[in-house]
Amino acid sequence: MNASVFLETRRHVGPIDSRMFGGFLEHIGRAVYGGVYDPGNSLSDTSGFRKDVIEALRRMRMPVVRYPGGNFVSNYDWRDGIGPKERRPARPDFAWKTIEPNTFGVDEFVAWCQKLGTSPMMVVNLGTGTAKDAAELVEYCNLPRGTYWSDRRVANGVKAPYAIKLWGLGNEMDGPWQAGHVPPEVYAQRAAQAAQLMKGLDPTIELVLAGSSSCLMPTYMAWDRVLLEYCWDHVEYIAAHRYSGNPASDTPRFLAEGVEVDRILEDYASLIGYVRALKKSNKKVYLAFDEWNVWYRERHRDYTWWQGAPPLLEEIYNLEDALVVAQFLNSFIRHADVVKVACLAQIVNVIAPVVTRPDGLLIQSIYYPFVLYSEHATGIALVPMIDSPTYRAGDRGDVPVLDGAASFNPEQSAIGVFLVNRSLEHDLKVDVTLCDRSIKRVKDVKVLSGDDPKAANWWDDRDMVKLVRGKAKLQDDGRVQVHVPAPGLAVFDLELSK
Ligand code: AHR
User: Fold this and answer.
1) Residue 96 Cα: closest atom of ligand 1
2) Is there an atom of ligand 1 within 6 Å of 69 CB?
């Protein structure tokens, strides 16, 4: 099968914010305890941080990591997690029915971020917490010294303020499962009050409203509209979440998942535009897609209550999941004018690209697209014109076989190209034409593919899904022809002539 992609460096939607390649770490299951934090393990450093985890995550180049939840945050008191560890209380965690020992808190998280080379995105509790609690966390983190909470940070051994820039105003407050769930008008008031106090202490921070938890919620968009109308002047972003799934094992339909992601991004772009027009505002509010991934297998809630760090949501990822992850990223790049922040949910053990055991670490399939995109998608987001055959994707109708995105880095004179072949049967021969510049060479063609979309890496066979070298050729007429296997992902750079 053949398809074509036409690119032009002047046809773009603006810069790609590197925070599009963020992650999310929640206090849940073995994400923190036994995941990033495992004191006493020979694989951990003197702070108790797993060195192998840090090394694997470093290759993902996440500029920001959201913390500490998720559902967890909505009944969390950040004060429980500071100061001498022996004095920190163990608490029941309302969200996941486990015991939270609080031996890892704000200070440990920021220290871990510094080791990893990332920035924290701190979410405050607007479920059971107050605006004052949220503001005091800003005081603890961002004020230099001379006030009660900033002095407590200094007393806890951290002289320089953390200067945390990005803050989340609660989590999924539209969900009846959320501690402190309220109607949108009430949450909007809470968020505005918290924003007023938080920015009153540090006007340089940026705030994210908790938008709809899913496009399947009956209040989808209505919830978001109320919040944006009420909080428009207080915030920089609204959050969206999506977890994709293939419960009916309908892979052709699942592999058209990017269509749904596009639609969500366009819904938000329209809503933001509507509220902006309503307000006659010059301000722009952007999207923080601060939870996204594939998650549908490990969704049961028959917990064994009140354990320490039981395995929860430990999804095993296969090739088709990785191709859906690639489509999320394609969609984010194509909508880089809307999406400024996005956080893969999550990063270790819990619905994660990286899995630990006490004696080692495993890389899951979804790790690979993320690593490729965060490396190659830099600069500005091009608008690709794609000419592709279509296929029947169940109730999603006829969908293009080829899903693609591209970036242009003027400093490096390079174009990153990201192509997903959604077909289960037909390899694609894709012609890439760059309309306004000439291509010097094709670099670094990487492919993720395989005969079995259900193939997954696990401890006994860790290389079932891995990157291999792909095939592409610069032709005499200046076009590049690349082979994208079915189903599969191909990522490569085009080096441009000066
Ligand atoms: O990431 C797992 C959970 O999914 C988060 O705690 C919550 O925000 C979402 O529903």
Assistant:
1) 6
2) yes
Q: Which residues contact 149 (CB under 8 A, 6 or more apart)?
A: 136, 137, 139, 140, 143
Whether residue 387 is found in the same domain as residue 243 = no
Clarify whether residues 267 and 406 are in a common domain: no
Q: Name residue, tokens 């790609």.
A: 16
User: What distances in angstroms separate CA 91 from CA 73, 212, 474, one per listed residue?
Assistant: 13, 28, 61
The residue segments making up the domain with residue 404 are 2-9+382-496
Q: Is the CB of 168 under 6 A from ligand 1?
A: no
Could you tell me the CATH number of the domain that includes residue 477? Answer: 2.60.40.1180
Name residue 425's amino acid: E
Q: What is the pLDDT of residues 375-421, one digit of tens each?
A: 999 999 999 999 999 999 999 999 999 999 999 999 999 999 999 99
**Which of 346, 376, 406 is the last residue before a domain boundary?**
376
Nearest C-alpha neighbor of 172 from the set 137, 208, 131, 138? 208
| pLDDT given at position 304 | 73
Whether residue 188 has pLDDT greater than 80: yes
CB of 23 sitting under 6 A from ligand 1: no
Chain position carrying tokens 């769930």: 181
Same domain, 268 and 393: no
Q: Of 347, 376, 405, which residue sits at a domain end?
A: 376
Atom 9 of ligand 1 has which residue's CA nearest to it?
70
Contact predicate 312/96, CB 8 Å: yes
Check pocket membership of 93 for ligand 1, CB cut-off 6 A.
no
Q: Which atom of ligand 1 is nearest to the CA of 175?
A: 10
Q: Which residues are catalytic?
A: 172, 291
Is the pTM above the cut of 0.90?
yes
- 178 within ligand 1 shell (Cβ under 6 A): no
Our mutation pick for probing the ligand 1 site, out of 172, 173, 215, 294, counting the most ligand atoms within 8 A of Cβ, is 172
Per-residue model confidence as pLDDT tens digits over 266-303: 999 999 999 999 999 999 999 999 999 999 999 876 66
CA distance 438 to 14: 21
What's the gap in Å between 359 CA and the centre of ligand 1?
28
Task: Return the ligand 1 atom nearest residue 293 CA.
Answer: 1
